[in-house]
Amino acid sequence: MFKTYKSTISSCYTGHVVQAVVINLPPILFIPLRTFYGLSFSQMGMLVLVNFVTQLLVDLSFSGVIDRFGARRFAVASGLLAFVGLLIFAAASLCPSEAYYFMLAGTVIFSAGGGLLEVLLSPIVNSIPTDEKAAAMSMLHSFYAWGQAGVILITTLLLACFGASNWPLIVLSWSVLPLLNALMFIKVPLVPPIPGHERMRLSQLVKIPYFRVAVLAILMGGAAEQTMAQWASAFAEKALNMPKLVGDIAGVCLFALMLGLGRLLYGFYGSRVNVLKVMEWGAAAAIVCYLASALVQTSWIPLISCALCGLAVSTLWPGTLVVTAEKFPLAGASMFAILAAGGDMGASFAPYLLGAVADYAPVLTSHASEGAEQFGLRCGMFFAAIFPLCALICFRYLQKHSAAKSV
Question: Between vectors from CA 215 to CA 212 and to CA 221, what angle results, nearest 5°?
Fold first, then answer.
């Protein structure tokens, strides 16, 4: 059962669903947590910040260690950390007076597991012998999108069926998945790491302009993806005046489904096309989606644009990993760690910048207070078009220099 590389790939697919759990589960529970434990908005925002910062620190800290010791022990540890972190997070219900500290501790631990998965999964799949690396990588990353949509829909359904007071049981139910993933990685075959004397040093890699542009490209690609992912629901509700349920489903879930569909389609048909060309067209389409969301005054066209943005940005992150790995085949897991850190950085700061623009645009323009929220969010969406625009410029550079000899 665990003797072929198909089982290895299945374990990596499951790992991306685990990552979707640790990123997307806590925000769905924010309202119950605020109700039962009196959390402030800043405390809830801190949980999100801790999640992403922890993953970013793990990306950077383990860039060289995995190459030295191999992926298996870290892959197993990632599942166990996610499992333990979710248990501690759920245990907050046992100590209401100290609940927030349990949530913080649990977030740090399961985010460390998520960060390890982000560093590990792409190089593991990239190392498996195949002529269709781009398709395999795109398929891998599609499972994050399926996991994101599944976590949102299933958790929302469970909260509706069993009541918000049973949120700890929902968290415990999700914790089974990373435990199973850890057990899977104990058995599956893994390709041995590149020997140290053959591996390209990170100090060499960061001096090469192509690699620096690739890091900027994935930073902007991550920014273009996560800005829409995190703001689609609020934009639909506040800027388009749609009910919250419509905003959640037609905003976040539909975006995630389109993101997964784009990666799935590229997984099936990607070997027939140039991945950098697909990424260029995707970035250009994302610019149009952001501008349409910001400027079109009807409700449904901006909502459709939010959803289609998921399709447009679907190849930006995994595609950058592929073209960089092709350019530097001897770079090892440390290269993927730096790229993951770049993507996480974009995913962290870009949604914040949209929120800042949405807050300050009405003030700076003296816009009427009754329409300030809608005006501010549309300004934020207009501003956010800069992220896919910068990604497009980076992809044009990579395309121009991709034919040069690999290092």
Answer: 140
